């Protein structure tokens, strides 16, 4: 039988993984688009082109929206939804290649996803929001293991496809209806530190309707 402790722990994880991370990523993505109007306009045009082709915003049109996918990926690179750190338990003795470092069985290994996603060995100008990192031809040059927005291995996020689709739908609908702009003096991302990165208490953006009612 499953213990009450396991049920409670699983419930908390589902709440955090299914709501908080998507909300946080959406806030960050909208703020980055507001702070980068040329990126915002290019993305809006892609969304509109797909709507014109299909007559409406569909699952297929979202899957074909490559720049939208790149904007979401770049947001997750800059502010990983998985959190600041990942940790895994070593299942057998492992000698790190090219070193004399032995990681013994049952040792808990923790590493920083934040630093990995901003490592200049893998990303040019890593502190700048640049969706072209995930567009051809750059996308094929992303080093395996250097981008871990949903964790890694068999225990990565089980809802990553659902979360990505949520982000894409919400972002597309926002850009169909509003021009996003930053509040003067509030251009920089404000993040709270913790196991999961969160936007600051106030990260306002200005929403200007694109069409009159």
From TrEMBL:
Bilayer topology term: Peripheral membrane protein
MF terms (GO), sorted A to Z: heme binding; iron ion binding; monooxygenase activity; oxidoreductase activity, acting on paired donors, with incorporation or reduction of molecular oxygen
Major subcellular site: endoplasmic reticulum
Cofactor(s) needed: heme
PROSITE patterns tied to this protein: CYTOCHROME_P450
Record's keyword terms, sorted: Endoplasmic reticulum, Heme, Iron, Membrane, Metal-binding, Microsome, Monooxygenase, Oxidoreductase
Binding site for heme: 157
Statement: the UniProt record of this protein carries the keyword NADP: no
Locations listed in the record: Endoplasmic reticulum membrane; Microsome membrane
Listed GO CC annotations: endoplasmic reticulum membrane
InterPro entries in UniProt: Cyt_P450, Cyt_P450_CS, Cyt_P450_E_grp-I, Cyt_P450_sf, Insect_CytP450_Detox
Similarity section: Belongs to the cytochrome P450 family.
Protein name: Cytochrome P450
Organism (species): Meganyctiphanes norvegica (Northern krill)
């Amino acid at each position: 039988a499953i213990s009450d402790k396991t049920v409670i722990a699983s419930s908390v994880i589902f709440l955090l993984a299914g709501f908080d991370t998507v909300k946080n990523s959406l806030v960050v993505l909208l703020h980055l688009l507001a702070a980068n109007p040329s990126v915002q306009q290019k993305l809006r045009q892609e969304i509109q082109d797909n709507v014109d082709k299909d007559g409406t915003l569909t699952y297929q049109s979202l899957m074909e929206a490559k720049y939208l996918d790149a904007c979401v990926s770049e947001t997750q690179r800059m502010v990983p939804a998985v959190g600041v750190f990942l940790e895994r338990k070593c299942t057998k003795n492992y000698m790190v290649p090219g070193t004399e470092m032995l990681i013994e069985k049952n040792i808990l290994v923790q590493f920083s996803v934040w630093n990995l996603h901003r490592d200049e060995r893998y990303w040019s100008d890593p502190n700048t929001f640049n969706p072209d990192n995930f567009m051809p031809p750059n996308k094929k040059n992303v080093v395996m293991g250097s981008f871990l927005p949903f964790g890694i291995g068999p225990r990565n996020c089980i809802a990553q496809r659902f979360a990505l689709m949520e982000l894409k739908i919400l972002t597309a609908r926002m850009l169909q209806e509003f021009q996003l702009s930053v509040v003067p003096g509030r251009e920089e991302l404000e993040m709270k530190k913790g196991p999961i990165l969160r936007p600051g208490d106030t990260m306002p953006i200005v929403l200007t309707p694109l069409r009159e009612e």
